[in-house]
Design goal:
Layout: E1 17-18, H1 26-39, H2 46-59, E2 63-65, E3 68-69, E4 72-74, E5 81-92, E6 102-110, H3 117-129, H4 132-139, H5 144-151, H6 168-184, H7 187-201, H8 206-219, E7 223-227, E8 230-231, E9 236-237, H9 242-247, E10 253-254, E11 261-264, H10 265-268
Helix pairs in contact: 1-2, 4-5, 6-7
Length: 270
């Protein structure tokens, strides 16, 4: 999908930046940021969006480490995308993967009718947020204007494929757990499990999901752990170096022998 926008500032205006978040916990912070989107008339109804974001956080924290969190929801806002940025001097516990408090929160709500927008946007964020120098400038911004100017530098012209900041392997693992639970769950729990599955499926591309569903149908599971260099789906050693690469990456790997998606045993049980 071609997007005309080339910078983050095409979606973000100064009024959508909160320099001093008052909130002291994750849910309060999300509510405070959504209130900004309501005030700017970028969203109409806070409650369903808040519920969707909290549901997503319960599946897996969107804190990506290094003091940054990217809470998000795919909800029909009537617009392409709604973005709000908040900064907390003291930091907020966001259940981050590195156990550190979050100081910068970039909350994004996007329209479900626009395919590829999520990956495109997060790809641009990934390149900049991985840069320690850029993060330092965000954290040290002295006022709202300076914070807006720094974050406005983010360019959104990267290819869709560069979305490694999203832990797709762990999302596939969680999706597999849910699909297995659905097989045995009573009808009263089916709706709740399907809701969780749908949240994950919204963040994964069609090709991945198609392969995942075919593997689930054929083998009963699609994602296998890697332990001590071996795929636990077929108990054959993976290629040299792949085991350590999987442990240090959020990207997708596939077993060359059985064709299942691979995830490190350590990540699967985090």
């Amino acid at each position: 999908m071609e997007l005309k926008a080339s910078h983050f500032s095409d979606f973000l205006k100064p009024a959508q930046v909160v320099y001093n978040l008052k909130s002291k916990d994750k849910i309060q912070a999300i509510e405070e940021l959504l209130d900004v989107l309501i005030k700017q008339k970028l969203i109409k109804n806070k409650k369903p969006i808040l519920t969707r974001i909290i549901d997503r956080e319960r599946l897996e924290s969107t804190a990506i480490g290094h003091g940054v969190a990217l809470p998000h929801a795919r909800v029909d806002t009537g617009q392409d995308i709604a973005v709000v940025v908040g900064k907390s001097a003291k930091g907020i516990d966001f259940d981050s993967i590195d156990k550190k408090n979050v100081h910068i929160i970039i909350l994004i709500v996007w329209n479900p009718s626009i395919p590829g927008l999520f990956n495109h946007l997060f790809a641009g964020l990934a390149q900049f947020l991985r840069n320690s120098g850029f993060r330092k400038r965000l954290f040290e911004a002295k006022n709202k204007t300076e914070l807006f100017n720094v974050i406005s530098e983010i360019r959104l012209s990267l290819p869709v494929q560069d979305d490694k900041i999203i832990s797709r392997a762990s999302l596939l693992w969680k999706l597999q757990e849910i699909e297995i639970q659905k097989r045995k769950a009573p009808k009263v729990k089916q709706k709740e499990l399907q809701k969780k599955a749908d949240l994950i499926r919204q963040e994964l591309d069609v090709a991945l999901l198609d392969r995942f569903d075919r593997l689930m149908e054929r083998y009963g599971f699609a994602v296998a752990e890697v332990d001590d260099g071996a795929c636990l789906g077929c108990f054959i050693n993976v290629a040299t170096g792949m085991g350590s690469a999987i442990e240090g990456s959020n990207d997708i790997y596939v077993c060359e022998n059985c064709g299942k998606f691979l995830i490190s045993k350590k990540k699967a049980h985090n």
